[in-house]
Amino acid sequence: MKKIINYLLSMEVAGILMVVSAFAMGLATFIENDFGTIAAKALVYNSIWFEIIIGIVFINLLVNSIKIQPWKSKQWSVFVFHVSFLLIIIGAGLTRYVGYEGTMSIREGKDSNTFLSEHTYIMVKNDAGETIARKKVLFSSVSSAEVNIDFELNGKDFTINTYDFVPSAMEFIDKSEGGGPMFEITLRKNGQFQNYSLAKGEILKLEGKTIGFYSPKEQDINIEINEGELQFIANDSVVFFDMMTGKKEPLYTGARHTITLEKLYTIGDFSWVFSKYHPQARLGVTSSNNKQNSLNAIHFDIIDENKEVEVSSYTMGMAGFSAPSDYVVDGSNITVSYGSDLIELPFSIKLVDFHLERYPASNSPSSYSSDVVLIDPSQNIEMDYKIFMNNVLDHRGYRFFQSSYDQDEGGTVLSVNHDFAGMIVTYLGYALMILGMFFALFARNSRFKLLMRKTMTTSAILLFFLLGPIFAEAQNNGTKCIVKDIPAEQIDELGTLLVQGHSGRFQPFNSISSQVVRKFSRKVTFNGLNTDQILLGMMMNPDYWVKQDLIKVLNDKLKGIIGNDASRARFVDFFEPTTGGYKLAKYVDAAYQKKPAARGTFDKDVITVDERVNVFYMAMQMDYLKVFPVPNQANTTWSSPKGPFQNYQAEDSNFVASVTNYYFQGLRAGLESGNYDDANLMLQGIRKFQEKFSPTQVADIEKMNLEIKYNKVNIFDRLFATYGIFGFIMLVILFIRVLNPKYQMKWPVHILAILVLLSFVAHTFGLGMRWYIAGHAPWSNGYEAMIFIGWATILSGLVFYKNNPIALAATAVLTALIMYVAHLSWMNPEITNLVPVLKSYWLTIHVAIITASYGFLAMGMFMGFLNLIFLILMNKENRTRIQDKVNEISKINEMTLIVGVYLLTIGTFLGGIWANESWGRYWGWDPKETWAMVSILVYAFILHMKYIPGLKGVYALNLMTIVGYFSILMTFFGVNYYLSGLHSYASGDPMPIPSFVYYALGVIFVVSIWAYVKYKKQWIE
Questions:
Q1: Helix (H/G/I), strand (E/B), else coil: 346
Q2: Confidence band of 503 (pLDDT split at 50, 70, 90)
């Protein structure tokens, strides 16, 4: 037993658990993508076996933290770092077993102090409404649905046995053998008819009335079968109405009345029809083909203490919904339900007003928020508050954040979270983790310092880096593209016009046009026209541009809906030619009704394409031409030629409403005469208007000119060539130097290093320009993240250049590849507005740190690949020299991994804090979060391989730095473009896997096998 315990607490088992945990989490993201979130939780995240693994990890980590005896070894940094993970695991346990969350729906003018739990339960209530049995369950289409729930009724013991789960459930009447008498009853309400079924022994509760079929207790309407005749008795006067003849007949209270099918009966305002009678039938449930139906069903039996089946039925529900069913057991009425439980709050929330902003073209949602009043009599609080993204309401340990809204826009849906204890412990773990990492990098006895003393004399550059990231009225020429004939100097003049962007940022027309055109078309040219010409043309003669294939559509189902199979569609394709109806309307509404995490690929594509249609329409309507400041109102959004005009005096209002059309007329006149003086005069008039009423913004002309230069220089696209050429030549020279020491070629290496350094300076300058121009850190989308990763990758090479120049050569080549990927067609290089969730200071902190980690880990991957190449080139003559070089690079490689994994871990958990600020919870097993954790586990395993027998050699380390980076690629690209989740703001169109990826995998496989053979033959021998 002692040997087993010691083995379970060994580093070998710790390594195995890291790999198993990472594999399980990664697998769960694919299960979620294919079968839904519930399936992933049931099979992995909430499973017993996963809990056991986490428990063993906790014990293993605790014991090994004590084993290092920090009071003797002085390894306090390592100890603190490991303790932080213990606290994070404890915090996760508190969140799971103590914390809870759910959904609160409130109508305007109403208040609520209850919400529906996120977890699902099987619940039994007696006739008095008291809960006599309750058990949390997690059913899915790919997990077991067998659960036993005991309860007591009338002094007897009963058990509910669940045995079959039906996803996307739909009820039907099964007329096969084995059923009993059943009625179909139709209820008339507000001119609409709703169908219900009523089997023998059941009770229907409808609109305040109860209908019983052989009910043991008297109901409002009691149905019986008397000598083969269908009869009912009502406790109130009933009016019988023959809809064919129009004849009405009163039926006396308490008397038996023969049931006539397909006739209308009325008690006051309550009207119903006995539609059909089935002598032998039962209600069944089956999976429907409508996958939008998220209601599920669970089959169950109620068994008495003598093992006899009292009830065999099913109940329907899901998370956020419960539909109790009534049954008679042992002569008593009970209800059985499956779904959410109702949780009561110690205070209430009143919805004063729900705000929904819509796009003008399709009238689809743009943003929404809730004006609420927090009412807590016990604390004498009545406080107004606005809830929206990144603006969470906190009170007494509960957090409320905007989730969705009612279809009629008269109510809001808030998500509720209660996890104060788990949050505090987890945050404490985060703080200790950051502290431990800091000391692990700079403490005297740390592994990092030991490696640094062996490889470098200074870490100043690294230290600096680690502390650094802290339709318009116009004359129509619908068949001709008139803008292509306007002279370039006129287009350039328009390009410098100051415009206020959608987020409030002031920028030149040149940037606005680039953003707008790329947004709806994902390209920057069309038939030889640049974005300035395209946007100008759309405003001048929209009839021409609505018939051009410009709006990007990739989803095949969407193509079928709009009737255009091309990759780009015309604006007119999205509207019915006869009625003008928007073809995507119902799909857009359905998508926005869902919570972000519940939206599938089609939903996201619908929202994306809908946004492009709206952007196209707004461009034609001149909504993006906000060039007119409001007099004496510096904080008011500038107006477009469409208005609003209420803040302008009559003279100014006329100018704002007409000058743009006069400008377009001047351009048209210039096309005829060649004289553009009138057009220039109108443009100068707009500039003078801006100078008069907003001199502060106009005075910042240098920033605007810098932005135009930035757009034209296109610095990051050019860096692909410079990094690639200089790095490749340098790499070739260094390889020659290793293989043949007599060719040192120091000066060529130094010159190339200086050229790479100058490229890095240009790279840094470009990032600074982008930051200054955008007004926010340049890592808010996929493109910006890629160019920042490239910057961090080069920085890591510069850090280690002094000791080993090959590090800089390798990172230069790698950065060239990164910059190449950044400028593929599915990336968006334009400076764009931040989506609501990114409008946070956490953007600068979280994204900067985590993307910087990708750069260091990328360097480790490339250095590992170079070491494998060196192993392949090793022979008896150069073995000693190659071994020294491989060992030297391996030490540098381990250092880069340490820095990279620390930054990755800090960035990931700071992302959890950001999520808590934005969505009210710090961890939700979103695929992006999960794969970040997978990456941490993968690299933690790599860094601990030196303690595991059989994995201590340089070959294993360098091979795993290559393999490990695939977890980073999956985190950055795979999740964004292939898996569904909350991080949809970071993803674009579904991206086909480039063919070079397959070639790269083939090369890595061949190189790794070849290197292993040489390693076994030359190194070990």
A1: strand
A2: low
